[in-house]
Amino acid sequence: MKLHSRHLLGLEGMSKDELTLILDTAVSFREILDRPIKKVPPLQGKTVVNLFFESSTRTRISFELAERRLSADVVSFTAAASSVSKGETLKDTARNIEAMKIDMVVVRHAAPGSAHFLSKVVDANVINAGDGGHEHPTQGLLDMYTLREKFGALEGLRVCIVGDITHSRVARSNIYGLLTMGAEVSVCGPETLIPRELGKFGVQVYHHLEEVIPKVDALNVLRVQLERQKSGLFPSMREYHRFFGVTKEKVSRAPKPITIMHPGPINRDVELSADLADSEHSVILQQVTNGVAIRMAVLYLLGTTN
Amino acid sequence: MTTSKIIDSAGFKRTVNRLAHEVVENHKGVENLVIVGIRTRGEFLARRLAATIGEIEGNSVPVGILDITLYRDDLRGKLDQPQLKSTEILFDITGKVLILVDDVLFTGRTIRAALNAIMDIGRPSLIELMVLIDRGHREIPIKADFVGKNVPTSPRQEIKVKMREADDDDAVYLVNLDETSKEEKR
Prior knowledge:
The complex is a heterodimer of chains A (306) and B (186).
Chain A: H1 16-32, E1 47-52, H2 58-69, E2 73-78, H3 90-98, E3 104-109, H4 114-121, E4 125-131, H5 137-151, E5 158-162, H6 169-180, E6 184-188, E7 204-206, H7 209-212, E8 218-221, H8 226-230, H9 237-244, H10 248-251, E9 259-261, H11 274-277, H12 284-303
Parallel strand pairs in A: 1-2, 1-3, 3-4, 5-6, 5-8, 6-7, 8-9
Helix pairs in contact in A: 1-5, 1-12, 2-12, 3-4, 5-6, 5-12
Chain B: E1 2-7, H1 9-26, E2 33-38, H2 41-57, E3 63-66, E4 97-105, H3 109-121, E5 126-134, E6 146-150, E7 157-162, E8 171-176
Parallel strand pairs in B: 2-3, 2-4, 4-5, 5-6
Antiparallel strand pairs in B: 1-8, 7-8
């Protein structure tokens, strides 16, 4: 069993077997993270470049740690301190870096499809670390890993993604991945922030948290992006919090405790109340730990096949 | 392809028994002893060995499982990626006498990988190697401390170890590969 593609560009179109292979492989790497020496040699001699054209703390550090723990040589690049500010194109930047003999590229870029584009112009393995509003596959995988760890299986699991679905790459990767794995996926958010055709994918659409809370096992709460308010898609943070903010009081109406996830960084008391984020039902920090294991699995699976 | 049985089920049991006695005798007991088996059949052997030692000495010996996939030196050359499984050593190995167990000793590369993997987990005071079959053809300087059976082989032969935990019965077979077969497992 191996992955079909040399790149990880998105979870759309990946088979259940492939997703399962990544999740199973990550279990082995999760164990390594608990060892005193958290380093193994499979990517020895490989060079990985992290191309981050968009700001990121968690994802970049998580990828860097994963790469170093697999013994790869790592170069990280952030747009602000680079020739991008001198007007170099993505293609030129990538080809120049590749000319320095690298093996893998991890890319984060504001333009949807940028990872696909890169995979066509460079020979290295490309891993998408978020391309605009398109996909963020390793986030989708680590969310699935965390759910599987908590519930044992994804089949039949009821997961609702709450927030701005239209602009969310996290939502998109989660929807593709979870549906393939046989979970029941729903979304909940303001009408202005949910794509109209989503129902066609087999996703239940809700506009009231009260309605969906009794019907789910887990809520994946998305970050509210402040710039969306400026563009008039919802009136105010306070109103958003009142209707779509996930609070202890709202989830207490569920018949059994609901697991709370959040891809971070959290706007406390906007999309998620602080007490709930820190409660025993929150798996937000487990998501972060599992993220390193998932990224190790992806890097290992792509980096050791020819 | 011709196959001959070189150890049967009863012989298998006697060999494991003898190996267990050798370990206990050499170490004058089982104090400070831990056993680590290399996936997959090394793990089964390690468990049987521990059970037998338990019967002899009356106290139990911790057993761990080692997955060496990440430490292989042929990871990138393989067409099919080996499935990565977990290492399960749920005890501290530092300062312990560690008996490393595998079914067949051949090139020695698996053992090299296992030693590196062990060093990343802790620092045993002593590591000894036990194998059920030593078939020769070493490619690196590694030697077993406890050997079930020495079986001189040619490169055109293969050793197949069957164990009840995964197969129908306990047995060891010597397989003569066809002259035309290109399947040299090296």
